[in-house]
Design brief:
Layout lengths: L3 E6 L8 H9 L10 E7 L6 E7 L8 H5 L5 E4 L2 E4 L9 H5 L6 E3 L2 E3 L5 H5 L5 H5 L5 E5 H15 L7 E3 L9 E5 L19 H43 L1
Parallel strand pairs: 1-10
Antiparallel strand pairs: 1-8, 2-3, 4-5, 6-7, 9-10
The structure holds iron/sulfur cluster (SF4) (2 copies).
The site of one iron/sulfur cluster has 13 residues, from helix 2.
Length: 244
Amino acid sequence: MARLAMLIDLSRCLGCQACVIACKAGRELAPGERWVEIREVVWGRFPELRGAFVPHRCFHCAEAACVQVCPTGALYKRDGFTLVDFDRCSGCGYCVEVCPYKVPRLVDGRVSKCASCLDLVQRGEEPWCVRTCPAGALQCGTREEILAEARARVAALKDRYPEAQIYGETQMGGLGVIMVLPAPPEALGLPAQPQIPPLAIWKDGVQPLSLGALALSVLTSGIAFFIARRRHLEEKRNSQNHGE
Ligand code: SF4
Ligand code: SF4
């Protein structure tokens, strides 16, 4: 399947919370659990203030730090989305620590974040949030389609918002959520250049090194045990010889 993506157009979001409720009901989330959050942001200087609603959710990074650190494989990539196998989650919380967007949470001892509605998309249906949005702020499609739509929307916005731009084209290797921003990312509470934190290198770097160190230490202990045992047997043999 082609790489999929989601469009979030901040210039159209009304902050109505319909997507939050649809996601909660459609995905049958536990009480207190939510995968979409709407944040209200104001920028500019009085009296030139402007505002927007910023849906905060998993951005489905191509280079997903959460996937890189997850030791159980509970988090994984498919068709551009970062999915979750909840049964495999051990609740260690590494993904919570490394996500540059602070998205995953632990609820009842397991990770909680948008696991995407890939099952619906594969059946030709729209994700719960997309089908519910009354303002046309959300859309789902192939990444090429979504990027083309985002470019067209940004071009149309330039009169009203001269700093309008696309977010997600390159960040974290390219996000699975492409946003149409009416202002620079920092003004909307988004990191312009999010980084993969050093802990994410753990799985690819330190973890194999630790395994190597562990193997070396087992080998060293084995050799030491073998030498000690041989010495012990020799001493025993010598004392038996002296006794004869
Ligand atoms: S936003 Fe966070 S939880 Fe979502 S894919 Fe990126 S690193 Fe993982
Ligand atoms: S808490 Fe996060 S990192 Fe740990 S097993 Fe669960 S999904 Fe993976």
